[in-house]
Design goal:
The protein is an alpha/beta fold. The chain has seven helices and 19 strands. It has a ten-stranded mixed beta sheet with strand order 1-19-18-17-2-3-4-5-6-7, covered by helices on one side. Strands 8, 9, 10, 11, 12, 13, 14, 15 and 16 form a nine-stranded mixed beta sheet that branches.
Length: 336
């Protein structure tokens, strides 16, 4: 049985310590920016939010990087896929923060569209000569934790990370049309430290989640799960989510983007699931369709948003604490 410890912190998470794995979900208003700091001090950022807005997202990322975890550069920037809410803010970020290596799934598949071509050209402007194109099964050379890629360019792992057990949730599972856009090309990875595992699949869509889960579960079970695609119903295939059995999920949604009540309902059907934390309260959801307010970082519309973040601090013994920077509320869980 999962052991749960609850506490209210007088202060927020301290700067990354040498013996912890730290994960920050930086609020970029319905986009994505997930910062990982390993016990060895490696910094990995998946996505950089939106362009424009007077450098809003780049500045929020720089604040967390330099003030909260006290680092001065990003070792690896991972582009999950080439959409404005994920890679659009990269050039603004690269102008104010050093980035050593740019990781991607390969060339954008949306270069035939004006917006897609513009995003791709912007990416090449900052990443040329420092690109690392990965395949499922590849890993980053991190210290104190491992990061293994499980999806990229509509392909999944050739061999399971875990036992490769047959997935009982595949029987009668709903299928959806294959998505050929950049969403379906999303990079996904598992971060592991000791017994703790964190899964992030970017905006990977339903049919490719199905391939990771069926007929066998290629990922295994995880403790912490970033809900795929901001909690939209085009992702979050139950046959995958039920198979990976997260104890906790974090949703990087916006006030009017993602945060589907049906995704929340689906998570509550997962065996052993305890809590969902949200970047934003879905302004269109009722109280019955929302999580406890203590676990929501931001309320109201984007225009008045303060950009509060959510973070996880993982100990070597498998305990991990999630904290809400808006109110200091934190809760500690034990890995499986």
């Amino acid at each position: 049985m999962t052991r749960i410890f609850v506490l209210l912190l007088a202060s927020l998470l301290p700067a990354a310590a040498a013996d912890t794995l730290d994960i920050y979900w930086i609020d970029v208003e319905g986009g994505a920016a997930t910062l990982i700091v390993t016990p060895g001090g490696d910094t990995v950022l998946m996505d950089a939010g939106w362009p424009g807005f007077e450098n809003r997202d780049a500045n929020r990322i720089r604040h967390v990087l330099t003030q909260e975890v006290e680092k001065d550069k990003i070792d690896y920037f991972i582009t999950s896929h080439f959409h404005r809410d994920h890679s659009g803010g990269l050039n603004q970020l690269a102008a104010i923060v050093g980035i050593d290596t740019f990781v991607d799934h390969g060339d954008s598949v949306e270069q035939d569209r004006p917006r897609g071509k513009a995003l791709w050209n912007d990416y090449l402007e900052v990443a040329e000569g420092k690109r690392l194109t990965i395949q499922p099964g590849d890993a980053l050379p991190l210290t104190g934790a491992s990061l293994t890629f499980v999806a990229a360019r509509s392909k999944g792992l050739a061999e399971p990370l875990g036992t490769g057990a047959r997935n009982p949730h595949c029987e009668g599972a709903q299928l959806k049309e294959e998505d050929m856009t950049e969403n379906g090309k999303s990079v996904g990875f598992v971060v592991k430290m000791g017994e703790f595992e964190f899964l992030n699949l970017g905006d990977l869509t339903w049919s490719f989640e199905h391939e990771l889960a069926c007929p066998v579960n290629l990922i295994g079970e995880v403790d912490l799960y970033q809900t795929t695609h901001h909690g939209l119903l085009s992702s979050g295939a139950p046959q995958l989510v039920k198979a990976v059995r997260p104890t906790v999920a974090v949703m990087n949604n916006g006030p009017r983007k993602g945060g589907s009540p049906d995704v929340w309902k689906g998570l509550r059907q997962v065996d052993g699931f305890v809590d969902l934390w949200q970047g934003h309260r879905n302004v269109e959801a009722t109280d019955a369709e929302s999580v406890d307010r203590k676990m929501i970082a931001n309320f109201g519309e984007t225009e008045d948003c303060q950009g509060h973040w959510i973070a996880a601090k993982v100990q070597k013994d498998g305990r991990f604490t999630i904290v809400n920077s808006r109110n200091g509320f934190a809760k500690t869980y034990q890995s499986k």
